[in-house]
Amino acid sequence: MSKFRYSIILVIASVYFQPINLVAQNIQNTIDSIQVEIEKIRGAKFKHSVKVAHQSLEDFGKYLDKMLDKQFSENMDKNYGKVVRKLGLYRGPEIKDFKSLAKTVMQSQAAAYYDSASNTFYVVMQDLPKSTLGSIYAHELYHGFQDQYHNLDEYLLSPGQGRLNDDEVLARQAVVEGEATYLMMLWTLKTQFGSIPAPGMLDMAIKMQAELDVKTMLQMLKSSVVPLAQSGNMEKAIKAMDDIPPFMIETMVGTYLKGMGFVFEIQKQGWQKVSELYKNPPVSSEQILHPEKWLTNEFPFKFEWPSFAQKLFSDWKLLESNTVGEIQWRIIFSEHGMSEDGLTAAEGWNGDSFAVFEHKKNSELLLLICSSWDTEKEAKEFKAAYEKLLIVKYPEGNETIKIQSNANDVLIIEGGNKNNIAMLLEFMQQAKKTKSNSP
Predict the structure, then answer these.
(1) d(CA 306, CA 410)
(2) Residue 321: inside a domain, yes or no?
(3) Is 1 a domain residue?
(4) Distance (Å, rounded) from C-alpha 72 to C-alpha 67?
(5) Domain span at residue 180?
(6) Are residues 243 and 122 in the same domain?
(7) Residue 402 CB neighbours (<10 A)
(8) Cα 179 from chain centroid (whole Å)
(9) Residues 233 and 315 in one domain
(10) Could you please report the per-residue DSSP string of 352-409?
(11) For 242-265, how does the pLDDT look when each residue is reduced to its tens digit (9 = 90+)?
(12) Is the pLDDT of residue 176 over 50?
């Protein structure tokens, strides 16, 4: 459930990058100067200049309306809240209007965004310290570089003509935002100190940031450790985060910070290896969390459900069928107060598929999950951890639940009629399980 993106989360720059001297009479002159520095760091030139412009919140809202209408169907908008609650990504009040929530999130958190159609990046939040603006400019300029070489619209907004699952899309988002965030860090460090530290010195800092959770980030932002966060638009953005469902923030921040950690590991083999990420994209968030799995071409299993057009589901309407993925399994456990359990339980992930149904008469929800794990031991560990989670998820204990492990696979049923459990398990066991060698 990670189908939307924007180009920079304001708080990232305010947390990680300290003040630098950025003085310019003309914003385009500043951009051109930063572009030259990026070319030196990247060892490649922009094919052409990237334009920059300021944009009002009102015009940004109009842009978001068009983008959200393009990316989300009316059916998806209507069912999003039900699906994320049933999956366990979110335990708060049901999200009734996802597009409106997504728009609110972006308008409160996005400092700038790159628009490939006009080869321009727009600065939305203008009441920001010059130090922060410099990092934002570098980040968005680099999106222009990526677009010129790799066509971001094709890579992100319409990949595979809709054949990619959400976890695959999330992995691609992590490549794009992670690389831009990494380049932003390198540019900022070079601007501040005159040179880029050796990879060994960067390693610890980047790994620490990649593992940072939203709760810790918010504590840092609200503390005196980050004085920049107490001014202007930053203060508003931080306050707004209290009203955003945690799973949305965790997912979005993960694309920047976990994505940066992934790109950093790949870039140890050179920038040409980073460029390969666009020709041979990672196929799961598992590969983002464990870069060696991309480097060794270790792919997860994919599940293909049998047809739902059968008597067993005649009283049910399919709301969504997709993939959870390792990152969002972590978030599900975290949402239920089991963050540490989630890190261990999700680590052996090797593919999954879920389907959420709504009963046509009483609106009851049914969740089916087929999952695969690296070893039989890890499958049992996940099953044990998830059984603990279900006690928190359904405290009244009145939900129909069935978890069945079979070697490396774990099948999960939540909801529905107890009398249909055997038939549902038989149906799930017919799911086609394949491991592809390409995305």
Answers:
(1) 17
(2) yes
(3) no
(4) 9
(5) 10-289
(6) yes
(7) 15
(8) 14
(9) no
(10) EEEEEEEETTT--EEEEEEEEESSHHHHHHHHHHHHHHHHHHSTT--S-EEEEEETTE
(11) 788 989 988 888 899 999 999 999
(12) yes
230 token code pair: 């107490």
Residue 380 lies in a domain: yes
Query: Same domain for 24 and 45?
Result: yes
Pair (223, 348) in one structural domain: no
Residue 392 has pLDDT above 50, yes or no: yes
The closest alpha carbon to 165, from 68, 316, 299, 290, belongs to: 299
Q: Choose one of 240, 262, 289: the last residue of a domain.
A: 289
In this structure, are 262 and 129 located in the same domain? yes
Q: Which two tokens stand for residue 112?
A: 């700038």
Residues 267 and 308 in one domain: no
Distances (CA, A) of 176 to 146, 219, 421: 8, 27, 42
Q: What are the CA-CA distances from residue 357 to residues 3, 6, 323 (Å)?
A: 20, 30, 15
**What is residue 305's predicted lDDT score, i.e. its pLDDT?**
97
CB 259 within 8 A of CB 177: yes
Q: Per the structure, how many domains does the chain have? A: 2
Contacts 24+ apart (CB under 8 A), 132-136: 132/10, 132/13, 132/14, 132/17, 132/228, 132/234, 133/22, 134/20, 134/22, 134/30, 134/34, 134/188, 134/191, 135/13, 135/17, 135/184, 135/187, 135/188, 136/8, 136/13, 136/111, 136/112
